[in-house]
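Two records follow; treat each independently.
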Amino acid sequence: MIQVSILINCYNGEKYLQETLDSVYSQTYKNWEIIFIDNCSTDRSKAIAKSYDHKIKYYKTEKNIPLGAARKYGLSLCQSKYIAFLDTDDLWREDKLEQQVSMLEGNINYAYCYSDYEIIDPNNKHISFYKTKHPNGFIFKKLLVWYEIGMLTVLMRREVLNTLEEGFDSSLTFCPDYDLFMRLAIANKVCSIKKCLAKYRNVPNSLSVRTKENHYKEIYSIYVKIHKIIPNIATLYPNEYVHWQAWISKTEADNIILFQNNLEKARQCLKKASILSERQKKRYEISLKENGLNLLKQELRNIEN
């Protein structure tokens, strides 16, 4: 029986697809299959996927659909004990699955496992390492303060999906992974491996960049959803909740700066977000300047680049 289903959603991913698939075929752990969802690509993605063997199960959507819907469709086809996730421009270290399967096999109370990862540029050059810091166990309240889960590093037990009303939210285009992994962490223990097991490629004009305008709207919808699951969240986690609200205000400010051009409204959000860090305090100070909107826009562009 196949133990790991690897969900790959693809839309015009030909540029890095072979390298991504090769990183799966190079795994030291061999008991896996790939559930490949082609979201109506118009490039050579299908030909590349079909050039591999029977371990890739190829499916094509009837029309191009939002990322959350594509992930939800793919998830319904994953029938193995464990589910992993990989996008078409990211890579895995060769022992990624071996280490994580071993971790979950030896610790049956963990819903999913994640790890550190490396950030690389389009030419495979190192940019930085993303280091996780939370301990293993019930970490939901810690995730309210610092969300550190890279989807490309996750290995999840399929059975834990039965504890949720829904898996991936099909309405989300920017952060369906944040929604799913936060909801799973509410009532489940989670673990991490403090090693770099994957490479995230920072690609200009990627889907996450193109859908950034949806970021705040979707984060707020998840905020509302979690309140419905935990109505007394502010009482249960008072300090973490304040921090979470400040982070949501920061996300709203970014959206206003980039897409609404409203300095006064952005300033109000940045004031709430100023408790997060020295950087956010400085951003609020920048918003007080006459040319604050342009300065804040440039700051966000510099970070993205």
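The next record belongs to a different protein.
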Amino acid sequence: MQVDQSIFPLPPLSGVFAITYTANSGIAFGLFKESGTFFIFLAVIVIAVILYSLRRLPADQRLVRVALGLALGGAMGNLIDRVRLGYVIDFIDFRFCPVFNIADLAIVSGVTLLAVSMWWTGRPAAKLSESSTGKQLLS
């Protein structure tokens, strides 16, 4: 495929979905193009922080481990493209949003799971125990 060329694997959905080959030298949504060296450096730092965090994380924090694992895998995938090619290959094209790849999806999913986990564990323990035992209904 040529850069910016699209194919339509599901013809009935051609107005909504395509496979479009793009060479993204920037970050998400094509922002900050031509800053490849900086993003390589940034990705290495992010990967190191995630690896450090995973080693220090208690074993019972499964959701956080999955979230960090997704973000780590996505960051490593995009880093490999960036080092090997000088850009990231994006190809998933829902016509209503910017083109992205599976690594981007893993990063976004990991960050979302991490946010949900932080929100959930940040809730006061008393409220959680009251709501789970039904004590609120009695008071």
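Discussion point: The helical segments are 36-56, 62-85, 102-122, 125-133, 135-138. How would you locate this feature using only the token line?
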